[in-house]
Design a protein that fits this description.
101 residues, alpha+beta, three-stranded mixed β-sheet, 3 helices, 3 strands, 37% helix, flat
Length: 101
């Protein structure tokens, strides 16, 4: 998954362990020397929107692109607007990614 530069966006019912699995995957990737970014979906969209308003979206997208793995949690609790995650290819509703390791 990391070699193909896929993102991780766990989807499922509440209480099924999606967050625990995402954290475990992120920690395992960090231990292998991979660059990992973990976000809640709402947090990622907030950062993208703020960066766009402050004319620094390109810089943020470059930083996100440097990550080997982006993990986006809590996708089910977010409703996407037309301007939402479509601003970058790695941040689509079927993809993901906070804290850098």
């Amino acid at each position: 998954m990391i070699a193909q530069r896929f993102n991780c966006c766990p989807v499922g019912n509440a209480g099924t362990g999606k967050t625990h699995l995402a954290i475990a995957l992120g920690l395992a990737a960090c231990r292998q020397g991979q660059r990992v970014r973990f976000f809640t979906a709402a947090g990622l969209l907030t950062q993208l929107e703020e960066a766009q308003q402050q004319h620094r979206l390109d810089r943020l997208l470059t930083q996100l692109d440097r990550a080997d793995l982006l993990i986006c949690d809590e996708l089910g609790y977010l409703s996407f607007s037309r301007r939402g995650p479509s601003c970058c290819s790695r941040c689509s509703p079927t993809a993901t990614s906070g804290a850098a390791c």
